[in-house]
Amino acid sequence: MEKLKNFIYNTSDILIAILIILVSITIISVKTENILDYSHYVAKAEAENPKNKNFGLAVPVEDKKVTTPENAENTKPAAPKTDKKPEMYAVYINPGESLQSIADKFVGLGMFESQAEFIALAEEMQATTSMKYGNFKIPANATKKEVISMLIVAP
After folding, report:
1. For 6-21, how does the pLDDT look when each residue is reduced to its tens digit (9 = 90+)?
2. Are 91 and 136 in contact (CB under 8 A)?
3. Is residue 139 a contact partner of residue 87, using CB atoms and an 8 Å limit?
4. Angle at Cα 89 formed by Cα 80 and Cα 144, nearest 5°?
5. Where are the beta strands (DSSP E) in the chain?
């Protein structure tokens, strides 16, 4: 019995140290797996909840206000206005944005046929390095040269 007692007394410190090391290795490995798995977690969350990734793209701006009176069934529809303002487009250009991505915004609006057409006209007007950034309001009936000239002047 004395030998067993001495053995436990002599090895208890070593056993506790080994137990502490095993617990710490387990905790560290679990935390490391969670850290390494974070990118997969983010990708899965984005796939489940897609966000609007069109920030900064051209969006048509309209001034339409719809009001419905309380007694709508007894009212006549209003006559359409003849002095309608031309449709405007709001285009936001980020600082440092490439000419190709700016061209994509205007191609998406239908103001230019292709990126190449936008870039060629910008080079012709020597506007490739002098384009400003910010929010631009451009009329839908603006000519292609007017569009480029609006981008040269700060909004």
Report:
1. 888 888 889 999 999 9
2. yes
3. yes
4. 110
5. 59-61, 88-93, 134-139
> What's the confidence (pLDDT) of residue 64?
57
Secondary structure letter of residue 142 according to DSSP: -
Does this model's pTM top 0.90? My answer is: no
Q: Are 139 and 84 in contact (CB under 8 A)?
A: no
Mean pLDDT score, 120-136: 87
Contact assessment for residue 151 and residue 131, using Cβ atoms and an 8 Å cutoff? yes
Residue 2 exposure: Cα atoms within 13 Å on the Cβ side = 0
User: Rounded to 5 degrees, what angle do the CA atoms 146, 150, 155 make?
Assistant: 160
Residues 102 and 131 in one domain: yes
57: which DSSP letter?
S
123 and 64 share one domain: yes
125 neighbors 149 (Cβ within 8 angstroms): yes
Nearest by Cα to 145 from 125, 116, 119: 125
Length of the chain: 155
Q: Is the dihedral of CA 72, 75, 77, 78 positive or negative?
A: negative
Residue 145 CB-half CA count within 13 A: 3
Structure tokens at 99: 């000419």
**CATH number of the domain to which 113 belongs:** 3.30.1490.480
